């Protein structure tokens, strides 16, 4: 396969996931489509961490666009010295992937904390508080307790659904960026786009070199690779 095409596929997927994260995060500001709770600051504090907008959204667009730009129409001859710049581009994409890992990881962590703490709402005593904060997330599996939140209506369902979406989307983004780290390293070392036979041989050399590092030491490894 061509490493650039794989990167482009990952880039397009990340771009769409980033858009969905931003939409999900924005919806958290408007429970039941109402704006008054945001203006009155009666939203979960984790909503204001912008995990979907910044972490799973804007920080993901950077690696997404970088990955999309890696694949070119002409993918021939990439194993030659004349196109070694493409290998450097694949290796540099690893840095963009690490940014994506940081952003998606932030999204996952904040979403998980938001789910564990639960929403802020008006309880039976008429006070605004985090009704489920002391349950350590156990309220998630006990829907009978959700009626303790009187206002906003269905706020528990709203928060649980959207934070769960952010958690899932962030997790997928994290996995895709991790895959691109591996893809970028292999593409940079083995060649941007090689024939299956050359790719297989290159991967064999990599694994052989890793084995030799442990068995023979650095000096013997250099001798074996370049002899």
TrEMBL record:
Keyword Acetylation included in the entry's annotation: no
Pfam families from the UniProt entry: L6_membrane (PF05805)
Keyword Membrane: yes
Main localisation: membrane
Sorted UniProt keywords: Membrane, Transmembrane, Transmembrane helix
Topology of the protein relative to the lipid bilayer: Multi-pass membrane protein
GO cellular component terms, semicolon-separated: plasma membrane
Transmembrane segments: 12-31, 46-70, 91-116, 162-182, 189-211
Annotated localization: Membrane
The organism's place on the tree of life at top rank: Eukaryota
Family: Belongs to the L6 tetraspanin family.
Protein name: Transmembrane 4 L six family member 1
Organism: Sus scrofa
């Amino acid at each position: 396969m061509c490493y650039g095409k794989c990167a482009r596929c990952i880039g397009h997927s990340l771009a769409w996931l980033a858009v969905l994260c931003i939409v999900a995060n924005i919806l958290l500001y408007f429970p039941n489509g109402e704006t008054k709770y945001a203006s009155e600051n009666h939203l979960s504090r984790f909503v204001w961490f912008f995990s979907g907008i910044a972490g799973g959204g804007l920080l993901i667009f950077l690696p997404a666009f970088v990955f999309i730009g890696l694949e070119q129409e002409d993918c021939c001859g990439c194993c030659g010295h004349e196109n070694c710049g493409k290998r450097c581009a694949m290796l540099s994409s690893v840095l963009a992937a690490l940014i994506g890992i940081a952003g998606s990881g932030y999204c996952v962590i904040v979403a998980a904390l938001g789910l564990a703490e639960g929403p802020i709402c008006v309880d039976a005593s008429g006070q605004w508080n985090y009704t489920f904060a002391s349950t350590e997330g156990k309220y998630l599996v006990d829907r009978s307790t959700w009626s303790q939140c009187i206002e906003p209506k269905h706020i528990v369902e709203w928060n649980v659904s959207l934070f769960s979406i952010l958690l899932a989307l962030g997790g997928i983004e994290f996995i895709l960026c991790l895959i691109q780290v591996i893809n970028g390293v292999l593409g940079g070392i083995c060649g941007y786009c090689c024939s299956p036979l050359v790719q297989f041989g290159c991967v064999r050399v990599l694994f052989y070199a890793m084995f030799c590092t442990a068995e023979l030491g650095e000096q013997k490894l250099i001798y074996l690779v370049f002899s």
